[in-house]
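Lecture 7, part 2: worked example. A protein chain together with 1,3-dihydroxyacetonephosphate.
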Amino acid sequence: MTTSLPNTSALNDIARALVAPRKGILAADESVPTAGKRLAPVGLENNEENRRLYRDLFFTTKGIGDYLSGVILFEETIGHKANDGTPFPQLLAEHGVIPGIKVDKGTVALAGFADEVITEGIDGLRERLQLFAKQGMKFAKWRAVILIDEKKGLPSEPCMRSNAGLLARYAALCQEAGIVPIIEPEVLYDKGNHSIEVAEQVTTAVLERVFEVVEAHRVDRSGLILKTSMVLAAQGFDGAQSTPEEVAAATLRCYKASVPADVGGIVFLSGGQSAEMATVNLAAVNALRAKENASAKSGLQGAAPYPWEISFSYGRGLQGEALEIWAGKEENKQAAQAEFLKRLQSVSKARDGK
Ligand code: 13P
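Predicted complex, written out as structure tokens:
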């Protein structure tokens, strides 16, 4: 068992590579039940072979290495092979893509707090991480889920605090194993009916708590990646949906208030936004970030107000359109891969504010 301090610069190197210009992460780490939710609408049974074929579609797309810095895998996929027999981790390495692994075991009801959930998977995590490191995994992901319901007073303080505590413990264990943790407190967009103002308030509160515990647990912030939802009104909000300009302003305000300057990088999840919306909103965030950083530099303040690279780590936002075209049929594969590449190209431009 190792308890030595992590090699901080090596962790920071990986974190920075994950948010390199033009590039971001593909979240291809759907658990077995979540994979089922993605495959069912296109008429595919949720069996191991269909899940393998689903990964094959994306990982064998030529040119992905130009837009993807990393791919988050699900445990099962590490042992799977592409149709031509190449093990998936090897195939990704050939594309120059860094392999990562989802290590949480999903959510369960938080006892005493109906409607809220807590993420499981901390028991035995030290040993699992050591194995993942041996298998070549360079980064990991842990997702916490936060539901907003104003009428019920959610999220509750215990939900935010318990999830923050687990994210910090997970992050410390990852760094001990030489693996960069992605800490993902997802504030749900596709459930609830809250406004953008409420989303901003809750996301800020969640991130403040997360970074308070991360600090207390002596996690090296420069060797971690923060993954969040964009700040925007819920899909079920009564009023108008948030514009890209509103999303950009609210998200950057939230980060400025709650994210320490030395965090290794920030990425967004798509969270149920359409691929186009997730692309346009990412472009708006990075355009505003660049503009405000440039004006601070030319003014008297000097320091950039938004020091972090902000990129993408999308699942549905990258895979959804191609999945619909493919629908499990070999004859549709080429068209589906072309669609995937097209989306990658737009999201990559958006990552640079275009
Ligand atoms: P979506 O982009 O589909 O939200 O998935 C990203 C993710 O990793 C959620 O945990």
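The pocket of 1,3-dihydroxyacetonephosphate is lined by residues 27, 143, 184, 269-271, 313-317 (CB under 6 Å). Strands lie at 24-28, 68-73, 98-102, 107-110, 113-119, 139-146, 180-187, 225-228, 266-268, 310-314. Keep this in mind for problem set question 3.
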